[in-house]
Amino acid sequence: QAAEEDRIVPEDPWHLENLYPQVTDARISQILERPRYEEFEFFHSGDVPLNAYYNRIILTEPEFLQGIMLLVVTGILFVVFRNLVSVIAPAMVLYLTITLTIAMMAVVGFKIGIGFSKTPTLLMAIGVAHSVHILSEFTTRIRGGGGRREALVGTMSLVGVPCLLTSVTTAVGFASMSFVPIKSIAQGAMADAFGVLMAFLFSTTLLMSLLSFDWAYVLRRFGLVGEERLRPVTTRKSPVPMGRLLDWVAQFNIRHKAVLISGFAVFLVVFGVGATRVQVDSNWLDDFWDSSWIYEVITRVDDEMGGATNIIYLFDAGEDDGIKNPAVLREIERVQELAKRDEFLVRKTYSIVDIVKDLNQSFHADDPAYYRIPETREEVAQYLILYESQGGEEAEEYVSSDYRRANLELRLRIGRTAWTQNLAKEIAAELERDPLVESEVSLTGIGALWLVLMDYIMSSNIQGFGIAFSVITLMMIAIFRSFRIGLISMIPNLAPVLLAMGAMGWFDITLDYNKVTIAAIALGISVDDTIHLMTRFHHEFGIHRNYERALRKALGEVGRALVVTSVALVLGFLVLTFSELRSQGLYGVLLSGALVTALIADFFFMPALVLWLKPFGPEGKGRADAGQVALAEAA
Asked: In what order do the strands lie in the sheet containing 405-412?
């Protein structure tokens, strides 16, 4: 009955607001709103309101961001293709992709954590790329006057394999982070990789099935649309400005390939140097926008109450009642005084030493000269017995019941974990020069966990990017059956990664647990455009045996789809700026910048490299030229 009364939503026992710490947070808020406290202004902080806030974001924000992303995607698709099928069908693909991904997480037991808030947005932005390439190629073939069946077969023959390859490379980019020791990131990476593959599956099955129908006939057949309301798709002309732009891009590469290669070389060097300046750090307060209520509350409490985070040194005296030994207490006091040297970071310190010194002073008429550790173990023991007999309970927070272990809590200013790391290193160095004799000390507490996390962040970033780059490079070599072409394809994809990491270095944006995946994911996504353009470039060269003509044809055929998918991806990731979390918004901005760089590199760097290095082989008379000659001879 008590449990029923404590429910915020009585009819649903598993509702978010019935779970910890939501009920506790709600009850505290109700208490603070009572009339007796109306004269007071409360700043409710701590683990309970913070975790309650996170929980609400986890379960409500993905739906909000997904709704914005759906509007963005459908708007882009409608503007580009101008028919409802090309809007509704991809939306169905994306909805099924996200639904199946969540179902997979439930089946395997993955928890929906804070990182999940950007997963639906990521999958929608990435998943729509397949739809754009399929719709673009299909529409071009329908406009050419071919039948629907021929258009579908031709579309799959040219776009199917590149879409499969881009799905695999993007999935590799995500999956490379599944090996990191941070559980939430590893599980999120596996879910994202699964979702990318499902997006490809639904794009090549459901989307293609929907395109196989003549929807104009269906609508007429059921009398839903009159004949005069239907305009055949074949009468719609391709946008001339886009064609002219892509032809200009090809011509610019042909005329200025040396300048382009030199310019991108400078770019890679500048942002490569910036990448070396990236600092690994974590400050959980940076997760929030400065204007958010929780940011204001936490900083207020941190400023006025003296430290909203902590680290704890645990001392083990090696025997029961060992903490009552004055020599052990002096070792605790020594570490305490070492910590107090950092007046900027260390706001307050607490330990059993403070209680013992207070007791000693109280039993000597509050003489400040006796605010010190007693000389004998018997004095310490007597003081503590009297303290406990008088109802003193504060000591329980700093010493174990058997008085074998005691902790020293350092309350720290909220800020960079590097500050805490430097403090811990200074104390460790001092204890290495002059070791403790009477006790053993170890570092623990939430602050210590953040220090371990810093090591994981750097190793995870290097490991994830290394795995992704190695696997994707091998795949590119296998795709083109050429070591040379595979390497040339990967060089432009260093640009978006270095842009993201270099910008972080030059603008003092720290690499934390929220951004640890950015290098691997930027590589996995940006290589998609390279695959589409390079495979079509290679295909056209096989026909024409002329690099310049092949480049024009390749850009003319897939360039429009690359622009559309890039716009969708960039706008999709910028949707993350609507998040209540600053860390999500910054992630979206960095990844969007990386993808803009990826498109520029694929349009102005990769073609220049191919024209310069000629990796497809020597030029000559291609199949198209041979066919024209044969026709001329026959005439």
From this structure: 346-350, 405-412, 309-316, 440-444
Q: Which amino acid is at 193?
A: A
Gap between the Cα atoms of 483 and 476, Å rounded: 8
Residue 516 to residues 12, 184, 279, 450, Cα–Cα distance (Å) = 37, 12, 12, 14
Residue 288: its pLDDT value, please?
A: 86
pLDDT reported for residue 126: 82
pLDDT value of position 457:
77
CA distances from 547 to 384, 538, 619 (A): 88, 9, 7
Query: What does the alpha-carbon distance between residue 460 and residue 286 come to, in Å, rounded to a whole number?
Result: 20
What distance in Å separates the CA atoms of residue 238 and residue 114, rounded to the nearest whole number? 43
The token duo for 198 is 């499902």
Q: What string of H, E and C letters represents the secondary structure of 500-529?
A: HHHHHHHCCCCECCCCCCHHHHHHHHHHHH
Q: Give the pair of three-digit tokens for residue 348.
A: 């307050």
In angstroms, the CA 497 to CA 172 distance is: 15
- Cβ atoms within 10 Å of 292's Cβ, excluding its own: 15
Alpha helices per DSSP H over 256-314: 257-276, 293-305
Distance CA 337, CA 341 (A): 7
pTM, rounded to two decimals: 0.81
For residues 312 and 374, the answer to whether their CB atoms sit within 8 Å is no
Closest to 101 measured CA to CA, from 173, 204, 187, 25: 187
Cα angle 467, 565, 569 (rounded to 5 degrees) comes to 65
The residue count for the chain: 635
The CA-to-CA distance between both ends of the chain, in Å, stands at 96
Q: Low-confidence residues of the chain, pLDDT below 50?
A: 1-4, 222, 224-238, 626-635
- CA–CA distances in Å: residue 84 to residues 79, 140, 290, 372: 11, 17, 41, 81
* Burial letters 331-341, b for 16+ CB under 10 A, else e: bbbbbbebbee
The predicted pLDDT at position 340 comes to 93
pLDDT in tens, 271-296: 999 999 988 887 778 888 888 888 88
Taking only the tens place, the pLDDT of each residue in 106-116 is 899 887 776 67
Unique residue bearing structure tokens 């101008």: 82
How many beta carbons lie within 10 A of that of residue 383, not counting itself?
A: 20
